[in-house]
Specification:
- The chain is about 65% helix and about 0% strand.
- It has five helices and no strands.
- It has two domains: about 30 residues, no CATH class; about 50 residues, no CATH class.
- It is rod-shaped, with a radius of gyration of 23 Å.
- The chain is an all-alpha fold.
- This is DUF2628 domain-containing protein.
- Keywords: Membrane, Transmembrane, Transmembrane helix.
Length: about 90
Amino acid sequence: MHELLARAMQGVDPDAPDAFWRVFFNLWAMVPWVALFWWNLQFVAVGALLGWWRGRLWEGVVWSLVLGPIGWIALLLRPRGKPRAAPPPLSR
């Protein structure tokens, strides 16, 4: 914990008026953004696959984009999508 605080406070004067923002941005700089992006992309791909399987492709994408793997559970708990009815044949 001391290492994290030291890294967050690096180059910050605690008495400065913008000390909060400097600490905030130092913490955000420590977040592994590239790894989070790729994980999220995988979650959306699996959600799209599950959504396609359940007949709700876009719903699967949205649930997994918003909630990640928890969205998969939400998608699986919902009933399957109803198949679209074919239009009646044209009469001559």
